[in-house]
Design brief:
Radius of gyration: 15 Å
CATH class: Alpha Beta
Strand content: 35-45%
CATH superfamily: Gcn5-related N-acetyltransferase (GNAT)
Number of domains: 1
Order of helices and strands: EHHEEEHEHEE
C-alpha cells in the first residue's frame, strides 16, 4: 500500500467511499443527504492543507484530508479526517493514513493534532487514535445522532507533538 497526494483522476474512486460512509450516518457529522458536489468541496483540501489516497495495485483503499484545525489563533493545531473503503477495513489502512497525517503535521511545525468530533461508538477509530498517541480530552454527551444506537457522545481527541 502506498499513500500519495490526491489527484483529480482519483475522485471517481474516492467518491464511492465517501458516499457510503456519509450515507450510513454512523461516524461523521456530515448530512447523509450530502451531494457529490458538496462532498467534493468538503473533502478536497486546498493548500496548505492536503488530501491523500491510500492505493494498492491501482485500487483506492482509503483517503484522508488534513490541515489546520482552526484559522488564526488556532492555526498551530492540525486536524485530519479519514475514510476507508468497507472492503479494506481491518487491514491497517486507517492506521497508515492517520500515521501519515501525524507525520505531515509534525513536518509542518504544528503543535499537535485535534479531532473535534469522534463518535464514541466508532470504537475502531478511537482505538487507532489512542494507539497513535491521542487522548480523549472531553466528550459531549449525546451530541451525535447514530442511526441505530440513538444519541451517543462525541469525543474531542488530542495528540500533542
Amino acid at each position: 500500500m502506498r499513500i500519495r497526494e490526491f489527484a483529480e483522476a482519483d475522485w471517481p474512486r474516492v467518491w464511492p467511499i465517501v458516499e457510503e460512509i456519509v450515507r450510513a450516518g454512523e461516524t461523521y457529522t456530515y448530512d447523509p443527504a450530502m451531494t457529490e458536489s458538496q462532498a467534493r468541496g468538503t473533502w478536497i483540501e486546498a493548500p496548505p492543507g492536503q488530501t491523500v489516497v491510500a492505493v494498492d495495485d491501482g485500487r483506492v483503499l482509503g483517503t484522508a484530508k488534513m490541515g489546520a484545525n482552526r484559522p488564526g489563533p488556532g492555526s498551530h493545531v492540525a486536524t485530519a479526517s479519514f475514510m476507508v473503503d468497507a472492503q479494506a477495513r481491518g487491514r491497517g489502512v486507517g492506521t497508515a493514513l492517520c500515521s501519515f497525517a501525524l507525520g505531515w503535521a509534525r513536518e509542518r511545525g504544528f503543535a499537535g493534532m485535534q479531532f473535534n468530533a469522534v463518535a464514541e461508538s466508532n470504537t475502531a477509530a478511537v482505538e487507532i487514535y489512542r494507539r497513535l498517541g491521542f487522548e480523549i480530552v472531553g466528550t459531549v454527551p449525546g451530541a451525535f445522532e447514530h442511526p441505530a444506537l440513538g444519541r451517543v457522545g462525541l469525543h474531542v481527541m488530542y495528540c500533542a507533538f
